[in-house]
Amino acid sequence: MKIIMLIEGSVDNFDRMIDVSRNYKSVFMDSTDYDEQLEYEYLSAVIKDFSKSDDEIMIARHTGRTNILRNLGDRLSEMIIPISYNKNSKYYNECPTEMFKLLLDLFKKGD
After folding, report:
1. What are the φ/ψ torsions at residue 59 (nearest 5 degrees)?
2. Sign, Cα dihedral of 20, 31, 62, 55
3. Closest CA to 91 of 111, 73, 64
């Protein structure tokens, strides 16, 4: 099983998620510098490559554009978990780092 987390938040938020996953085979990337079309294409390509790799966890910092998340979810077979630190986002979570730790515990138990 693989975990794909798309994080909308600051570099510090992103770094906290990276720290939590440091004991796993992980891939980290940032697509916040791309315009909408390039961000979608970049995320799509990276997720496809990740699905074929030996890595277990992918954490990507993204812009939070909901249409990109929707299109990725519609077109890719992998389970994508969007998390936002932005209180105005529908993907907002009060304790995203803690939720991610719980998810990793479940991931460990599944192996």
Report:
1. -120, 120
2. negative
3. 64
φ, ψ of residue 3 to 5 degrees: the values are: -120, 130
Nearest to 19 by CA among 69, 57, 71: 57
CA distance 69 to 8: 11
Please give the model's pTM, rounded to 2 decimal places.
Answer: 0.88
The half-sphere exposure of 46 on its side-chain side, counting CA atoms within 13 A, is 22
Nearest residue to 58 via CA among 74, 42, 36: 42
Give residue-wise pLDDT tens across range 30-57: 999 999 999 999 999 999 999 999 999 9
